[in-house]
Amino acid sequence: MKKFFSYLCIISIVILSFQSAYAVKKDNAAPIVIQTEPGNGAANVQTNKNIVIKFNEKIVKGNTFLRIKLADSPKKPVNITASIEKNSLVIKHINDLDFETEYVLTIPANAVKDASGNGLKKAFVLKFTTQSDTSEGIVRVFQDGKEVKADSSDNLVHLERDTFSLRFKMPIESTVQVAALDNQFDYDFAEKGMHLEDILYFTPGTGIATDGSYPSMYLNNEGHHYMFYSDDNDSRLTLISEDEDSIIDADWQINSLLIYDSESYEYSEYSFWDFPLDNIYIIVINDIDSDNIIDEGEYSKLVVTFN
To answer: Are 225 and 218 in contact (CB under 8 A)?
Structure first.
C-alpha cells in the first residue's frame, strides 16, 4: 500500500510539472499603434489615399468599431468604410477629400481588440492636411512675362518662336520630372495610374545629366529633365514665391531647344526660329508620395505649338 501511495504521489507531481511547463501565459496587453499612413501631422496628403493604422499584433473588431470617425476641422463627418487586414485598420473614404483641409481621424477606445479580447485602451487621434488643388495642372507657361493659358479642350499652348518658361507649383524640396517629346504617340502613352518604370522616358536612370540648371529644353523620347528646388544654392529652378505651407512656384527659363538623335547619341541645338518642329509634347510629373505611380494631381500634359 505504501508503494501504491508513493507511485501515486510521483505521478501527481509529474502531471503537475507537465501542466506548469505547458501552461499558457495570459495575455493582458492591449493592441498598440506602431505606424500610420499618413503620419500624424502630415501635410500635402493626397485626397484619394486610404488611411492605414498598423498595430503591433493582429486585431479584430471591438464593441465601438462603428464609432470610428473621420471629420474635417469644423467637425463635418466624412463618409467612410473601415475594415481590418491582419494587424492593420484600413479607412477608405467614399469620395475624395477636400483640398487644403485638415482632417481628424478618431478611433475610440475598444474599437479594436486582440485575439485575447484586450481592447484599445484609449482613443487614438490622427491629424493630417490634404494637398493643394492641382486640378488646373502643376505647370503653367509664361512668355514675355505673361501667362499663356492652354486650350481647355486639347491642352494646346500657342507661343511665338521665342524664349519661354515653365512654372511649377510644388512642395519645396520635391522634384519635377519633365519629358519633352517630338511625337503624339509617346505623349499619349503615359496615363494616370501607370508605373513610371513602364514609361521609357521616365524609367530610372533616364534623367538627362546637367551641371546646375537646364538652360535649354532637350527633346528626347528616351529621357527626361530632373529638376528640384531646395534653396538658392541647391537648385535647378528659380524660386518665384513660397507660401506658409512650403508650396512654391518655381520657374524654368528655356532659351533654346535641342533634339536628340538616337542613332548618333548626340543632340543638335536650335534657336527658336530654326527649330524644325511645330509642336513639343510635354509631360510633367511631381511624384509627391514617391510611389513611382502617376496619381491624380501629380502630373500635367500640354502641347506647345509655335505660331
So the answer is: yes
